[in-house]
Design goal:
single chain; alpha/beta; Aspartate Aminotransferase, domain 1
């Protein structure tokens, strides 16, 4: 591809992207293909000679697109969103065109210095105190792994990386059963082992970790010769929004000198609204916290904001400085590759800079407040229907429900059928979870361009399909 071709196809791709975003409401939200249908249309061997871009682009439209679920669809109510505000997409065009490897300050000074400033903007927006420093990770999973590794090293006197875990007392990490499975994976990868992730029961309307049970578990482990290393608190769990009492968790951690990491991957975005910050009261006492601007704030995936109270502990855990990665003659610089597990780093700060400037914090707050209000309204409408049950109250913009039907004995099978029927219909997309052993349907509002009419349509679709089963 020469320069002229690059210019022409770049324009065409941008035009395609704008047309795609404009037509999303006309498309089914979830891919309507059957397993293997896309693969059956792809050659089993790679081409030996070059193919024309016209043919490649045509195959993209006819083969690939029918198999895509549309995460930017305004009626995507499943999982949590992976938002990409249009201005964020434009920033990513520029990042892709430059294709910089931003692992060190010297490999792209602007990327490092912008990241430092933008993370401080976010810190201020969330109301976090000045003691926190930030870094952009690819996802909350990576940030949590970094936190678990730091817990491990801190509890072992910074000898784990050097000496390994053999012969050491069993390290123990504590969390509730509401946490995301990324916590389990972090425990695996860190070598701590699933058996040493202690999941504490939950209590109350927020499904918060039982603090008395947490305290008892730590005391019992100490008595048994084990070594507590840290606690992972949850704010806005994936299932139904489980949220721990962060202040109480931190108080227990201080008593036992444990590291506290707060996973607020989805709900953290809402903390730009001061009225929601009670949900993580005490956050200033945590050692680290992560939230994903790519979930609810509008930043193109991938983009996780990881704040650390003692960044030197993170660097001590992760930094390796071979000669070829040293920056000579420069003091006081930050090399963010030393703050994360991967060495390579994309220029993720640019999309946040574009996003925050183009919408302003107040514009982003308005979006989040609307989503919360619409979720509460929809939950109230479903509650008023005689054959629906709200199984968990709205936590910000997330709630769960189930359809009871009339004279139905197997309610779980009925709701499994309902989820499938809704998603096959295509007008909206929802997912399910298990709540206290009961199969329920999750509904979460968070897509960047959703409006109230989309929520009204969701109510009609749910009721219509349920009563036609």
């Amino acid at each position: 591809m020469n320069g002229d071709d690059f210019r022409e196809w770049s324009k065409r791709a941008a035009e395609w992207g704008a047309d795609y975003r404009a037509s999303l409401r006309d498309l089914p939200v979830r891919a309507q293909t059957e397993p293997g249908e896309i693969a059956a249309q792809l050659p089993v061997s790679p081409p030996e000679t070059a193919e024309a871009m016209e043919a490649i682009f045509a195959d993209f439209e006819t083969i690939i697109m029918p198999g895509m679920t549309h995460w930017q669809h305004p009626r995507f109510f499943a999982y949590f969103p992976a938002n990409a505000a249009p201005v964020s997409v434009i920033a990513e065009y520029l990042v892709s065109a430059m294709a910089a490897q931003c692992m060190l300050w010297q490999t792209s000074p602007a990327a490092t210095e912008l990241e430092t400033r933008i993370l401080d903007w976010l810190r201020q927006a969330l109301g976090l105190p000045q003691g926190f420093s930030g870094v952009i990770q690819d996802s909350a999973s990576s940030a949590t792994l970094a936190a678990v590794l730091t817990m491990r090293e801190r509890s072992l006197g910074w000898q784990g990386n050097e000496a390994g875990l053999s012969g050491q007392p069993a390290l123990r990490i504590y969390c509730s059963g509401e946490v995301h499975t990324s916590i389990d994976r972090a425990i695996w990868v860190a070598g701590i082992g699933q058996a040493n992730l202690v999941k504490i029961g939950v209590t109350g309307k927020h499904r918060a970790m039982d603090i008395a049970a947490l305290e008892a578990a730590i005391e019992n482990d100490i008595s048994a010769g084990m070594k507590p290393a840290g606690i992972i608190a949850c704010v806005g769990g994936t299932g139904v929004g489980g949220t721990d009492d962060v202040a109480a968790v931190c108080a227990v951690a201080r008593k036992h000198d444990l590291y506290v990491h707060v996973d607020a991957a989805w709900a953290g975005s809402a903390m730009i609204c001061p009225e929601y910050r009670e949900l993580w009261a005490g956050i200033e006492n945590a050692n680290s916290v992560v939230f994903n601007p790519h979930k609810w704030l509008g930043a193109q995936f991938d983009c996780a904001a990881h704040f650390i109270r003692e960044p030197e502990d993170l660097v001590r855990t992760l930094a390796i400085r071979p000669a070829y990665l040293q920056t000579h003659g420069k003091d006081g610089i930050i090399n963010y590759s030393e703050w994360s597990v991967p060495l390579g780093r994309r220029f993720r700060a640019l999309k946040l800079w574009f996003l925050i400037r183009a919408h302003g914090l107040e514009g982003l707050r308005m979006m989040i407040r609307n989503h919360v209000a619409w979720a509460r309204k929809l939950a109230a409408r479903l509650r008023a229907e005689p054959d629906f049950e709200i199984t968990s109250e709205p936590m910000l913009s997330l709630f769960s429900f189930r359809y009871l039907g009339k004279g139905v004995r197997d309610v779980e099978a009925l709701n499994q059928q309902l989820v499938k029927a809704i998603n096959d219909d295509g007008r909206i997309y929802v997912t399910q979870t298990i709540l206290d052993g009961v199969y329920v349907i999750r509904f979460q509002i968070g897509q960047f361009e959703v409006n109230e009419a989309d929520i009204d349509l969701a109510f009609e679709v749910i009721c219509e399909i349920a009563r036609n089963l």
